[in-house]
Structures are given as C-alpha cells and as structure tokens.
Amino acid sequence: MSGWIIGVGVGPGDPELLTLKGLRIIRQADVLAFPAPLEGPSFARSIVASHLDDTRIELPIRMPMQADRFPVQAVYDRAVTEIGAHLEAGRGVAVLCQGDPFLYGSFLYLFARLSADWPVEVVPGVSSLTACAAAAGSALAARNDVLSVMPAPLADGDLEARLSACDSAALVKVGRHFSRVRSLLLRLGLGDCARLVVHAGLPDERVLPLDGVDPGEVPYFSTILLHKRGRAWL
Amino acid sequence: MSGWIIGVGVGPGDPELLTLKGLRIIRQADVLAFPAPLEGPSFARSIVASHLDDTRIELPIRMPMQADRFPVQAVYDRAVTEIGAHLEAGRGVAVLCQGDPFLYGSFLYLFARLSADWPVEVVPGVSSLTACAAAAGSALAARNDVLSVMPAPLADGDLEARLSACDSAALVKVGRHFSRVRSLLLRLGLGDCARLVVHAGLPDERVLPLDGVDPGEVPYFSTILLHKRGRAWL
Questions:
Q1: Is the pTM of this model over 0.80?
Q2: Residues of A (171-200) whose Cβ lies below 8 Å from B
Q3: ipTM for the complex?
C-alpha cells in the first residue's frame, strides 16, 4: 500500500458547494489535514463536517490567523514532517482547502514543499470568485472581457494601473482596506458599478453597494466585484 | 406551485466536478435546458448524463457552434419564450452551464432576458480556470499576485498591455489563435513560464510547453496559463 496526498478544494463555505470528487477523496482518506486557528474550530473542516465520522486521523495545521500577514513558514515545515510520516506509512492524506487550492490558497505552502518528494494531486473547487458572482447576480466576464483579480492590500497606484487594464475586476481580501479602496474606486468613477460581497453562499451572505458599507464591519474574506459596463455586460 | 429557474454550473467536464448542490437542483428540476449544437449531443448535458433518467422535460438550446462567433440572439429569444412557458406553468427549470455560469457563460444571454421577469438564481460551478491549474500543478495566484483572465482572440496590443499589468494570466478560448499568441508570448519573454492546457480534467487532458504544440491541433476550449515567476510563486 502506498501513500498518497491530494489537495481538495472544498469551496467557499456552503457545504453543498463541495464537489462529488472532493467528497469521494475525503471519504477515501485515512488522514485529513486542514488549516485551523491556534484555538478553536477550522473553517475548512466545518464545510465538510457533516460527511465526517471518527474513523480518520485529523491533522489540524494550527497557526495564528492574522489578516494580511503571510503565514509562519515553520508551521508548514512541521506540517510537512507530519504529513510525510503518514505518507511513508502508506496512508492517504486529503488536505482540505477553502475555495480552490491554487487560487490564493495556503495549500500552496504545503504543495511547494511536498511536491519535490511526492506526486501531489489537486481536486479543484468552487472559488470564492464564482460564488460572489452568483450571490451578486453579476457576470465576472462576458464575451471578450478581461477579468482581473487583485488583492485589496496592494497600494493605490498598483490597483489603479491594474484597474485601468481590465473590463471587470474582483478585489479580494478587502477587510481593513475597504475605506481606502472605496475612495480609490470613487475617484476613478468606478463606485457605482462596484459592490461588496461578504460571506458568499453562507447564511449571513450580504451584497452591498459601496456607500451602504460600514468600513469597521468588513471581514477579511470580503470581495468587491465591479464591471465597468455595470449590468450591461452583453 | 410556482415556477423557478436556476442556472447550474456543472464544471469543466469531469462529471465528478459537479457540486452536491448542482446535483440536487438537477434532480429537483422538472425541465432541463442546455446548450447544444445544431445536431448531436450537448457537452453540458453529457457531464451530468449519469444522473439523468427519462422523467424530465429536456430543452436543448440548439445553435451553430462557431468558434469565435458570438451566438445568434434569436436563438436565445426563442429559448426564453419556451422557458417562460414552463415557468408560467409552475415548473422548475435548471439550465446546465459548462464551467461557471457567470464566467464567459452563454447562460448570460438567458440571464439578461429572464431576470427582468423572474428571480433567476445561480449555483456556481468549478471553472475551467481552477481545473486547468489543477491539471498543470500550478498556482493561479499566490500571496498578493494579480491574476488576469483574458480571451486569446483579443488583438496583440491589447493582450500585451494586459499582460504587463499582472503577475499571472490565463488566456482562454485559444483555439486558432495559438500561433499568434505563442509568438507574442515569446517576444515578451513569457514563453518559458507558460503552458497550454487542453481538456482539463477529461481523459484526454494534456498540459504542454508551448514549443511542444502543433498549432493545427489546438481546440477552441484550450487555455494558456502563465505565471511570471515560473514555479517560484512563493
């Protein structure tokens, strides 16, 4: 019996947005690894919790959840050692990844380390981008549109240059950058065609025009969607 | 009983990349609508075929499949009339959409017409973007990368400007534009960090360096992925 490791995109939060393949891999795994805060439950695990019983080894990868800080690399070094031991022992390991593993996923830190020694597969997931678009009832891209996905923590000048080179945009990781980004979008005349999407697909999902947002209440995992043609995509 | 209509992203082609929610909606629907060529089977329907029996009304939206041509609007006008009649009769209608409905989906043509009169919901799907990244074992975006998604049919000057304003890119709808786009990428020094992904997630999936591609053999639904840092994303 030989070990295997697969990164599984579990989607943006709605447990029903898990794929059939993701569910099969999770059920087949001997070990489930997932990101988790230093204390308390893991969001990625909670998405698939209804499919779990007590028959799997669970390996939470605990780290401080600091918005805007890239994670402590020693955490991943340690996780890779633990996962490697399971693989050597012939176990199948599924790594749960919120959204999609290859789109801003912390899974990339594991993948970069493990793929040197093991074949690491990935099951793609529903990304928060398409979930936000579904929540907003709004096209990410139509016809020959250029869609640009950019992190809100970037400096204003960078955001402005990239916003000028696209037809539609998704600004991710908005959080405490909301006020600054809103000011920028208003200055560029893009405020009216933009909306903030919070917790897409979850029971507390909200889609708000920018002027209806309290900047103190914007979670890290929020996204601003904008299309320069407004709702006249076609 | 009142009618309902939901656009369902069925993923890029692997039947297992359907979501649990997509499967539930398809099973609950009285009517399945899906794009189809003038003759022969529908690719979107084939993705979910194993879940279907003969109990649903099937409504193929048949149109000429012409690469690079935007579809004949009269086809959608007619489809909307048919779908509207089912909704008026109190039936639930699921519209099958390859990939995600709001990312270059032909569903947008139906959505634009129907959403004026009916609440149209969307179930997001796994997009071809994340499926291509999984096939290539390659990050779409890491850390604070800007990812730009652009259709290959755009003119060289437009592509060049947009490629200069991102860290990573996905060029979609490559098809007969391959030779021209490859030349452009080579001229920009981006050839080595780019790969062509064909039929991601399907049995005949291929991931090829650009110099290993026969330009006469590139299907319309092919994608070039590139990351300017190569595989040194982190």
A1: yes
A2: none
A3: 0.95
